[in-house]
Amino acid sequence: MKTHRARMLAALFFFACARTALADPALTPKNFAVNPPLVYATEDKAVLFTVQLPLTQSMPEQFEMTQHTAAAAPVKFRYVLRDDGTFGDLVAHDGTYSRKIYFQESHAQTIFFRVEQLNAQLIVDRRPSFLELMQKVWWRFQHPHEPFRIRS
How far is CA 66 from the centre of its chain? Predict the structure, then answer.
């Protein structure tokens, strides 16, 4: 029994090393982006997710994107990002894998997404009130060269 287990572990180690050695770094996705990165609660909003990949001879057909409620939480939803000009992808076979998803969340939260080793966030925030917007305008009027900050 011990020799069988040792052989299985050796085979598993060999395949893991071979897979790492054969992995093409050009096929590793780069620049995982969420556009827009902020949406307001209770609004139906289209969000575009993109992953870029350098153009090579052998391009993968798709990438899987997972949605999580927290950074280390289990997978809530799975989506497919494609480079074929569908589901929000603007240009087919350009190395940009995309997916357009419509969100309408009921409360403020941060939603986490992952494609392979890349992470991104979508922030769902409450819509600012009219007084908060006017406070920002007044601040800009008084301090045109300083970034806006809320005084407490």
Answer: 8
Cβ 141 vs Cβ 135: under 8 Å: no
* Contact in structure between 85 and 126 (CB atoms under 8 Å): no
pTM over 0.85: no
Q: How confident is the model over 54-109, as pLDDT tens digits?
A: 887 778 889 999 999 888 889 999 999 999 998 889 888 898 999 999 988 889 99
Residue with tokens 């982006």: 33
**Token reading at 33:** 């982006």
3-state secondary structure of 85: coil
Per DSSP, the residues of 89-144 read -SSTTSSEEEEEEEE--SS-EEEEEEETTEEEEEEEEPPPPHHHHHHHHHHHHH-T
Tokens for 64? 């899987």
> What is the rounded CA–CA span in Å between residue 45 and residue 120?
17
Determine the residue type at 60: P
Fold adopted by 26-127: Immunoglobulin-like (2.60.40)
